[in-house]
């Protein structure tokens, strides 16, 4: 088995979005290629996520063991969603696809894992039918003017529809003061036992509406802040802030909502604790990144919005014990595909990261390779 560290060229631009000058000046993003010994396979699986470090992705060695090449890549925002722009992530994937084509890989299967599902769908839709000319804040890049080589197949692996949708579904509507997560509206508090679990349909309806309203309040503040920054041509171009309470989806505590085999809690443990913990989804962000990544109204990284515009085969794989990407998420991705060359695979009992489940990794990779070979991706 061969194991190589790859780098792909990217233009970080003039705006400082990451503080490491070494990283910016390198003009590179990184990936890890694992493939079988001997002749180079004709197909490469490219596994992507907006921020995760996929150099150690669990599927790399197993895929290579099946005789295919597997690449786990990072974007320029590795481990840093504070200033992330989905549109730049599209350019990073394009660089990886071009480089793999130059290496002789005739077919590329783009695997969007977890939050990479929406990104993979966005990439292919723009590669086939480019429409996006700017970020939601009106900044470059113009994807209609970019070279975005299309891939040959898409896999949505343990994926949710997109970061903005999940973020909104997890946003705590009980917070009434954006600077203090402990000042709360008891009537909208999912952690108040008087509300549940189980939660009534009426409570859930109020809760979901209040989540949207909080998202809109944050959006209004972001737009006002950006307008003030734009008025000062010599001042800063962006502004950082904290969003409290980003891990409060009632599905974490009430297993009857979007029912599955999952356990109570989140990917990171107890929901009440994680909801205010420093290291969780979208806690720190800039104004421009919030619009691109977390705004349910503005973000362009929503898988079901883009999958109707892709022509390549699509495989959706989900686990019934996943407590981040729920069965309804998988169905939404599958249903969004407008053609018939689509497949939905269910991994019974599989959790989001296959923690303690080596047999599930084996089953998942076997399904991916089986599907690929049925489509001639050898």
UniProtKB/TrEMBL annotation:
UniProt entry keywords in alphabetical sequence: Hydrolase
InterPro entries named in the record: AB_hydrolase_fold, MAG_DAG_Lipase
Asked if the record carries the keyword Hydrolase, the reply is yes
Concerning SUPFAM superfamilies, the annotation shows:
alpha/beta-Hydrolases
**Listed GO MF terms:** hydrolase activity
UniProt cross-references to PANTHER family, sorted A to Z: PHOSPHOLIPASE-RELATED (PTHR11614)
Q: What is this protein called?
A: Alpha/beta hydrolase
The lineage, from the top, is:
Bacteria, Bacillati, Actinomycetota, Actinomycetes, Micromonosporales
